[in-house]
Amino acid sequence: MVVNGKVLEKVKKILALASNNPSEEEAQAAMLMAQRIMAENGITMTDIESNNSFTNEVVDVPITSPFRTPWWHKILATVIGENFRCEAYYYTVNQKSQLMFIGLKQDTEVAIKVFNYAVDAIKYHTAKYIEQLKRGGVNNKPLYLTGIRNDYILGYIDGLRDKFKEQVEKNNWALILIKNDAVIEAVAKKGLRKGRRPSINFACSNNAYASGYRKGREFETREGLIESQNASM
């Protein structure tokens, strides 16, 4: 299939916007828009990477600092990685673990921006939910609130995962999201193994989980803003 040069250039500009945008929300919107245009026009990452500005360089980049990482960061990183052609894993040295992404350089740049934006969104909405419960006279015992908080966060990430899955199925993005062969080979060489599942305190609150799930499903892209910026390029 012959790729339309103008469309290809448009996708490259949008991906450049995603890679160099200090706004995590706008970066996410740009990447999702690029995925949509690629799917609609039969453009693959091979077409994109043939340009000098994109390479097949596989990199390992840290997502978090090498200190104690919240249990949900790994789950969130896995969801983001699956949707931005990266693999999330823990790198441990001197008994300190650091969450990492491995993938093509341009993919990890976008994945980290989306991850950081999602972390901030989860923290914000979780705190807001807990504050509402407190005002409503909920049990204020720290252990209980921690369990409620974890229920909400788990629901949020599950909602986000289903949101991404729905977008992929609706827009036929499955082929676009296949990891580059060089990334697959690099991951295989690492011989990654599943780690121990941490012991997490959950309150098993259906309401907290459902509230988080709904909010995760609302993780939006603000395409209108990106469209307007792209029109000026």
Secondary structure tally: strands: 3
| Portion in beta strands | 5-15%
Mean pLDDT: 81
Query: SSE order, as H and E?
Result: HHHEHEEHHHHH
DSSP helical segment count: 9
* Uncertain spans: 221-233
Helix content range = 55-70%
Q: What structural category characterises the helix and strand content?
A: mainly alpha
Tell me the count of domains: 1
Distance between the termini: 26 Å
How would the global form be characterised?
A: globular
Quaternary state, please?
single chain
Most strands sheet:
3 strands, antiparallel
Radius of gyration computed on alpha carbons: 19 Å
List the strand order in the largest sheet: 1-3-2
